[in-house]
Amino acid sequence: MNILSPAYCSLALLLCATAYGQKSDLAPFKQRQDIISKAAGLIESRGRPVVLPDDLMNPFVGRVEAPQVDAADTSTASVVDALAGTELLARLAAQIPVSGTASLDGEALLLLGQKRLKAGDVVRISFEGKSYELTITYIGSTSFTVSKSGLSHTRPTRLAR
After folding, report:
1. What does pTM read for this prediction?
2. In Å, how far are 33, 77, 88, 91, 92 from 149, measured between CA atoms?
3. How many CB atoms lie within 10 A of CB 137?
4. If you placed Cys at 80, which of 65, 128, 134, 143 could pair as Cys (CB 3.0 to 4.6 Å)?
5. Which residue would you say has higher pLDDT here, 2 or 55?
């Protein structure tokens, strides 16, 4: 009898579960059919989607036509062209992101993040849509000098904050 007692217990539990089982979560077919017909009526009452005009711009695609140039845009271009050598060199030197200076084996280094530059190295700067090459001619403990086309400009390594 001991061997059969687990089987009897399982059978008793199964019968109790079926006798006292929970109701189904699904609604009866008739009630579901009413809900589906109401939903179909709501969809049909919305009507057809509005036809969009052909000249409507797609926000994910850029414009094909060239943008109009204002007088203000031409004045900024002429300002860059009008910058004389020393003024341009000063603005270009200000674009160099210097993080400090160091000395390695007696040679001064200019630190630009992870990049190390020494005197004589060339730095490429992009300014107002044009690319410029500046040569580092001197590196001191508190300043450095860049040159371009025979002109030179000295800038401090640490700018006032």
Report:
1. 0.47
2. 85, 21, 12, 15, 13
3. 15
4. 128
5. 55
